[in-house]
Amino acid sequence: MKLIRELGCKGCHMIYGKGGSSATDLTEVGSRLTAAQIEEFLSADPATRTKDFMPSYSSLTKAERQLISECLYNLH
Ligand code: HEC
After folding, report:
1. Global confidence as pTM
2. Is residue 19 within a helix (H) or strand (E), and if so which, with residue range?
3. φ/ψ of residue 20, rounded to 5
């Protein structure tokens, strides 16, 4: 959760009722996507996205993205 806070995900995403409302609520993201899909989403090149609003986190290490993904996946 620390990384998620530092990276400002909640500036756009709601988690447990706190955060921005310009993007999807991530509290339940684990019921929609697998940890692997979340990790893939975070590492995607923005140019390959259909809805290109979210900043790319491809500059994070794979380990960091996996940590975030596991964390989000286990929230629900
Ligand atoms: C500038 C606003 C912004 C920030 C900051 C942001 N996001 Fe997003 N995020 C979005 C938007 C908008 C979408 C939906 C559109 C898209 O596909 O890009 C999205 C989509 C997602 C999805 C897919 C959700 C789904 O249900 O399909 C995940 C997972 C996600 N974000 C995780 C994160 C994480 C983790 C962080 C922090 C490391 C983060 N976001 C930071 C705006 C943001």
Report:
1. 0.89
2. strand 18-19
3. -80, 165
**Ligand 1 center to residue 74 CA distance, Å?**
17
Q: How far is the CA of 24 from the centre of ligand 1 (A)?
A: 7
What's the pLDDT tens digit per position in 31-69? 999 999 999 989 877 666 666 568 889 889 999 999 999
- For the CA of 69, the closest atom of ligand 1 is 35
Question: What does residue 66 show for φ and ψ, rounded to 5 degrees?
Answer: -65, -40
Backbone angles phi, psi at 24, to 5 degrees: -65, 150
Class of the CATH-defined domain 2-73: mainly alpha
Question: Looking at residue 33, what is its pLDDT?
Answer: 95
d(CA 5, CA 11): 9
Domain positions in the chain are 2-73
What's the pLDDT score for residue 63? 95
